Amino acid sequence: MDSRADSTQKSYNYSPGGWCMTDGTSEVVWQSDGNLVWYDIADSHVFWKSDTCTSCTWTDLTGSYRLSFQLDGNIVIYTRSGHVLWAIGYRTVR
Fold this sequence. Notes:
- The protein is mainly β.
- The protein has one domain (12-88): Orthogonal Prism (Agglutinin, subunit A).
- It is built from no helices and eight strands.
- It has strands at residues 12-14, 19-22, 26-30, 36-40, 46-49, 66-69, 75-78, 84-88.
- The strands form two sheets. Strands 1-6-7-8 form a four-stranded antiparallel β-sheet, with no helix packed on it. A four-stranded antiparallel β-sheet has the order 2-3-4-5, with no helix packed on it.
- It is globular and about 40 Å long.
């Protein structure tokens, strides 16, 4: 029997603009343009960004459609067709 079948755990998926996390001094935002960005709240300084986009000319990583926090420990940005644009996490197999 698949142990996942009895699990209450699930992956969490968000559309662009649908997720934000903050600790009070910085925030990570899944922007409506499809870019995942970590900001300093005080001065809006960008610490890091995924350089992904829904449809922009400034990057080849276009087509951002879904931000997924997966059960395997990976955080992945997918296109509408399921192509991986960006990923980070525990497992190398996606």
